[in-house]
Design goal:
Layout lengths: L1 E2 L2 H9 L4 E4 L5 H9 L4 E8 L11 H6 L16 E5 L4 E6 L6 E3 L4 H7 L3 E4 L6 H19 L8 H10 L5 E2 L22 E5 L2 E3 L4 E5 L4 E2 L3 E4 L6 E2 L3 E3 L2 E2 L2 E2 L4 E4 L11 E6 L1 H12 L5 E9 L6 E6 L5 E4 L5 E2 L7 H8 L7 E10 L3 E2 L2 H21 L25 E6 L16 E5 L9 H10 L1 E5 L9 H14 L2 E6 L2 H6 L8 E4 L8 H9 L4 E3 L6 H10 L3 E8 L2 E5 L24 E5 L4 E7 L4 E5 L3 E3 L9 E6 L4 H12 L9 E2 L8
Parallel strand pairs: 1-2, 2-3, 3-7, 6-8, 20-24, 26-27, 26-38, 27-28, 28-29, 29-30, 30-31, 31-32, 32-38, 37-39
Antiparallel strand pairs: 3-6, 4-5, 4-34, 9-19, 10-11, 11-18, 12-17, 13-14, 13-19, 15-16, 15-18, 20-21, 21-22, 23-25, 32-37, 33-36, 34-35, 35-36
Helix pairs in contact: 5-6, 5-7
Length: 680
């Protein structure tokens, strides 16, 4: 389970979890803070494809294509091109692959992470080649061992080059591990493997298909290359210097590469996507298994007794294997202990190796070598079967079965809750009609200019503090102080909890305030609801990834309060990155576009606009769906329906409330049913 904060770690620890995977957006100082204040074992991400959305909060793939990134079926929407638009003046501020981060390379951070106490390092290898896995794991194993030794920790440039060669997206990034602002997190030019730059096209003979270039790196026959304006890949089959064929060439040499056709012109950059030599060495490293299981054994060869071999280790293994054959009396050459040990030691390509072989042998006996070989093969087969059959994991916890008993809820009136994502200081929210409660984002409670409007809302409606999806370490104390003052100064009824750590952080309010679990807790079933109820959550907001059938099953078979989002531009991504400042943290010379009055959008290749809301307190950006989710809840046994408001005015909000109250949905090209009518 991924954690973002100390509170999350402590809550998991109380629940009995021994180990947790840290969010990829945590800097190294926050990792250290969590480790020093909790006993839970930590695992952190150290190399591979970054995702700029916070773990568990990316619905972009799901909203666009019905494929859920939260369920392991990401449609790679972050690797598509976008334009950053200021819609108020239609200016394009930036364009390219604006959601596509470079891969993380964390070699520099290994000693510090080990010193902190991180117990395992996670490498991203999804959909990568075996060669990629072989190269990356070999290099990280090398530097983990180096960090654990007494030798100087120094990174070899050749190892970095090999990592770049097997896969990189415009180079590597330190991700979020560094405590400084990372303005090089995104590579907007290209979303896939860049390879290694080897030079520019100096000349091109289209008739012969010859490219001339001054090499910036080594190449050889069999390498795979690409050009910046070509989508095709080329395997080098002809390489020349002074019109003489050669097998390989080196940095600084002027060469010709033959048999090249396509959109090629002088000045184009050339990249080596795959090194034949590196791939060959990588394949060799995994083509045969080198790790052996060490065995001890006792072989007994006695007159008038079957030949018997007893495996006495590993500790959990004690297996006797025997043949129906008997040793005979030797005529000339009795078998010796040395010959028996030599023959049994020939384990060859098996995953086993004998360490100690004890021989119990009567004098003057003879056995066929073929019998010894047969005994060894049979014994190793018995050991292998034993280890396989006893290595199956048994679940420590037996999950309860669903209680499919139907619950009759006597209160048939569905309450209506309203989330105001944006609070307009010039709007009179007391004009809102027919709602039961209002959710206000925490960030507004710390801004004095919103004090009067918050008081007005709190005096008119049951008001809840809507907690942010993520609370970064440097924002934690500010957040707690803001909550304490808000509870003291305003008539607050409760909190909308957006992460499991916030339950622990708000523990002191649990007895006197209602806790509502936000959809960001990713509740998909009855067991999750029951678990959160035990942690003190009174109402659960279901995941927007559920379809109608799943929602109906949950609502009909759980004896708990359930809320459903029935209207709104839903967040499709919560990211620890600012698209306006091109950084994961604020920095002094940023243009601070987030403080102007412009409304910003990401425009995709289909012309759809995704509203973005930057938060410069934490440098977190929320991206909202281009379509407004609107669903009919008439035949769903939910206790509350939730309306999420973004840019709508009071008149529009009241019309939406009337539509929702009637059980209907809004129709038109701007609206979607989301996942309500499809399987994700």
């Amino acid at each position: 389970m991924t954690i973002h904060s100390l509170e999350g770690a402590k809550k998991l620890e109380k629940l009995g979890f021994k180990r947790a995977i840290l969010a990829r957006e945590l800097p190294i100082n926050e990792i250290e803070f969590i480790h020093n204040n909790t006993n839970i074992e930590l695992e952190t991400f150290i190399h591979g494809a970054l995702c700029i959305s916070y773990s568990g909060q990316c619905l972009l793939s799901s909203m666009l294509g019905g494929r859920s990134g939260n369920r392991g079926k990401c449609a790679q929407a972050c690797r598509l091109p976008y334009e950053l638009i200021c819609k108020d003046n239609s200016n394009c501020i930036n364009k390219g692959y604006l959601l596509s981060p470079k891969d993380l390379c964390g070699l520099d951070f290994i000693p510090a992470l080990i010193d902190i106490g991180v117990t395992s390092l996670k490498i991203e290898g999804r959909l990568k080649s075996p060669e990629y896995v072989a190269v990356v794991t070999k290099i990280y194993r090398k530097y983990i061992d180096l960090a654990l030794s007494s030798n100087e920790y120094k990174i070899d440039d050749n190892d970095l080059k090999d990592l770049m060669q097997v896969f990189n997206r415009g180079g590597f990034s330190s991700g979020h591990l560094d405590t400084h602002a990372n303005t090089g997190l995104i590579y907007k030019e290209k979303p896939n493997n860049m390879g290694i730059y080897i030079g520019n096209v100096a000349g091109y003979n289209a008739t012969k298909g010859h490219i001339t270039l001054n090499l910036n790196d080594t190449i050889e026959i069999g390498d795979t290359i690409c050009l910046e304006n070509e989508s095709s890949k080329y395997r080098i089959s002809e390489l020349m210097i002074n019109n003489k064929n050669i097998a390989s060439a080196f940095d600084g040499q002027i060469v010709k590469i033959g048999r090249m056709k396509g959109n090629i012109k002088p000045g184009d950059k050339i990249f080596k996507l795959e090194s034949k030599t590196l791939s060959r060495l990588a394949k060799l490293s995994y083509s045969s298994e080198n790790k052996k299981t060490i065995l001890d054994c006792v072989i007994t060869i006695k007159k008038d007794c079957p030949i018997c071999l007893e495996i006495t280790s590993p500790k959990e293994c004690c297996i006797k294997t025997s043949l129906t054959k008997y040793p005979s009396v030797a005529i000339n050459n009795p078998v010796t202990k040395e010959r028996i040990i030599t023959q049994l030691s020939k384990t060859g390509n098996t995953p086993f190796e004998f360490n100690k072989i004890k021989v119990i042998l009567d004098d003057n006996l003879y056995i066929n070598i073929s019998d010894l070989n047969e005994l060894r093969r049979k014994a190793l087969e018995d050991v292998s079967n034993y280890l396989i059959n006893n290595s199956k994991r048994k679940p420590k916890v037996k999950l309860p079965k669903y209680e499919l008993k139907k619950y009759i809820k006597h209160n048939t009136r569905k309450k209506i809750s309203l989330l105001l994502n944006i609070l307009d200081i010039n709007t009179n929210y007391s004009e809102l009609e027919d709602i039961d409660c209002v959710y206000l984002p925490l960030k507004y409670f710390s801004k004095p200019e919103y004090s009067n409007i918050i008081k007005n809302i709190c005096n008119s409606f049951n008001t809840y503090i809507y907690m942010p999806t993520i609370i970064k370490g440097n924002y934690r104390n500010l957040c707690i102080n803001s909550i304490d003052k808000s509870v003291e100064n305003y008539n607050i009824k409760g909190f909308v909890i957006s992460s499991i750590g916030q339950i622990n952080m708000l523990e002191k309010f649990k007895d006197n305030y209602e806790f509502i679990g936000n959809y960001t807790l990713n509740v998909f079933n009855n067991n999750s609801i029951k678990g959160y109820n035990k942690l003190g959550l009174n109402t659960i907001t279901l995941s927007p990834e559920l379809n109608k059938s799943d929602i109906k099953t949950i609502c009909d078979t759980v004896n708990s309060k359930v809320e459903l989002i029935v209207y709104g531009n839903l967040p499709v991504m919560t990211t620890g990155y600012c698209f306006l400042g091109n950084s994961n943290k604020c920095y002094p010379d940023c243009k601070s576009r987030c403080e102007d009055n412009c409304t910003y959008y990401l425009k995709d290749r289909l012309g759809l606009y995704f509203r973005i809301l930057p938060n410069n307190i934490q440098t977190i950006t929320t991206i909202y769906n281009s379509k407004i989710t609107s669903i009919n809840h008439t035949d769903l046994n939910v206790d509350k329906v939730r309306i999420d408001i973004l840019d709508e005015n009071i008149l529009e909000i009241n019309n939406i409330i009337k539509t929702v109250k009637s059980g209907k949905r809004l129709e038109g090209k701007d609206y979607t049913k989301g996942n309500f009518v499809r399987d994700v």
